[in-house]
């Protein structure tokens, strides 16, 4: 068997997780792998971290490969989709965790930063959703990522929230467009989640204040978010065209 041949005996569901080397992305990979999925772990810049995530899956007896590509580059992402299909024979689920967040007031935001965020968060989600709409097997699922900031209206988040509001609109429309395909399309809009990226630059006082926003009095964890992903990816076949807010009731 060549390295490009489908892995023999792999008949379980197959998922591609964009941003799969990140904090939430790697938790999603770990949870889906534990549920028996074969995984394509997508990365944009951190190939080393993606390979570490793949190794974590394979050492536990699972199947995974790393696939690279600029999330907003349709040719690169088409190759990533093809690599997963060639490795595992088909593709059932796409979880699109990849995104960037640049915080600033509207008055002070550099327009080049706005363009970067819109390219990754909007165009990137559109590219991945378009490929998934064309290529997922019946019974499949697309899970995009928004943010609870689309409802919270916190200062500094205007541009980021605007980009994620576009993701929500895309998701809701695509769910209706895929009538007859037996593919669900939903978005997850997490609240404050304790990833390294989120905690970076925040002092203990700010972290405690953010944790206190929820009546559960804690931040979310990547595992909390992954739990919702695996539900939407598999058993939740009657949940379609929805935005789910795993945020501990902070809104």
Low-confidence stretches: 1-10
Q: Which CATH architecture?
A: 3-Layer(aba) Sandwich
- How many helical elements? 9
How many whole angstroms does the radius of gyration measure?
18 Å
How would you characterize this protein structure?
Helices cover 45% and strands 13% of the residues. With 251 residues, it is α/β, with parallel strands linked by helices. A seven-stranded parallel beta sheet has the order 3-2-1-4-5-6-7, with helices on both faces. Helix 2 (47-59) links the parallel strand 2 (38-43) and strand 3 (64-68). Helix 1 crosses helix 9, helix 3 runs parallel beside helix 4 and helix 4 packs parallel to helix 6.
Question: Gist?
Answer:
The chain is α/β, with parallel strands linked by helices and 251 residues long.
Which helices and strands appear, and what pairs or packs with what?
Layout lengths: L13 E5 L4 H12 L3 E6 L3 H13 L4 E5 L5 H15 L4 E4 L14 H25 L5 E5 L3 H4 L5 H20 L6 E5 L7 H4 L4 H9 L9 H12 L9 E2 L7
Parallel strand pairs: 1-2, 1-4, 2-3, 4-5, 5-6, 6-7
Helix pairs in contact: 1-2, 1-9, 3-4, 4-6
Any descriptors?
seven-stranded parallel β-sheet, globular, 9 helices, 251 residues, 13% strand, alpha/beta, single chain, Rossmann fold
